[in-house]
């Protein structure tokens, strides 16, 4: 598992796409057991004035309705440690693994994922962290809104 992994590269591309749209730069990509990309997406809270479209939820949403078997053995790649909502979605659909870009910016439900038998990998990727640092420096209020904290 490395930053050269295709699923991670796509998640990072999605994060950059989000940044270019003025959104929160978090991307995600759901890849099935055979290596097929099921869905990809990025945080759309600002772009769509959405309460729920975090990167991981966008990727799940873009994958569309799938049978439970499609998630078996799947990996959710995300550029940032997944929040409680996205952690819950990964547990609900029983993905096998969550690969995150970094957790220096924010630590989400990693322990909860592990308790549910989901493998958690942290790539400690500097590019993901830099995207978040730039965004939070410029828009701290929008970041705190995203994680449900008063600014
Ligand atoms: Zn989330």
TrEMBL record:
CDD domains: nucleoside_deaminase. It is found in: Cytoplasm; Nucleus. Its main location: cytoplasm. Its cofactor is Zn(2+). The keyword Hydrolase applies. GO terms for molecular function: cytosine deaminase activity; diaminohydroxyphosphoribosylaminopyrimidine deaminase activity; metal ion binding. GO terms for cellular component: cytoplasm; nucleus. It is an enzyme of class 3 (hydrolase). Its EC number is 3.5.4.1. InterPro entries: CMP_dCMP_dom, Cytidine_deaminase-like. One of its GO terms (biological process) is cytosine metabolic process. Pathway: Pyrimidine metabolism; UMP biosynthesis via salvage pathway; uracil from cytosine: step 1/1. Keywords: Cytoplasm, Hydrolase, Metal-binding, Nucleus, Zinc. Residues 2-121 form the CMP/dCMP-type deaminase domain. It comes from the Eukaryota. It catalyses: cytosine + H2O + H(+) = uracil + NH4(+). Catalyzes the hydrolytic deamination of cytosine to uracil or 5-methylcytosine to thymine. Is involved in the pyrimidine salvage pathway, which allows the cell to utilize cytosine for pyrimidine nucleotide synthesis. Belongs to the cytidine and deoxycytidylate deaminase family. Homodimer. This is Cytosine deaminase. The lineage of its organism: Eukaryota, Fungi, Dikarya, Ascomycota, Pezizomycotina.
């Amino acid at each position: 598992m490395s930053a050269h992994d295709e699923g991670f590269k796509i998640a990072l591309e999605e994060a950059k796409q989000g940044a270019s749209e003025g959104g929160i730069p978090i991307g995600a990509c759901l890849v099935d057991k055979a290596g097929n990309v099921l869905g990809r997406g990025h945080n759309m809270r600002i772009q769509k004035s959405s309460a729920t479209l975090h990167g991981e939820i966008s990727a799940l949403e873009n994958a569309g309705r799938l049978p439970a078997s499609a998630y078996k053995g799947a990996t959710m790649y995300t550029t940032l440690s997944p929040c409680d909502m996205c952690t819950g979605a990964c547990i609900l659909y029983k993905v096998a693994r969550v690969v995150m870009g970094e957790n220096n910016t924010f630590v989400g439900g990693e322990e909860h994922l592990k308790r549910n038998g989901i493998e958690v990998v942290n790539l400690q990727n500097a590019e993901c962290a830099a995207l978040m640092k730039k965004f939070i420096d410029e828009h701290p209020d929008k970041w705190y809104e995203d994680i449900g904290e008063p600014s």
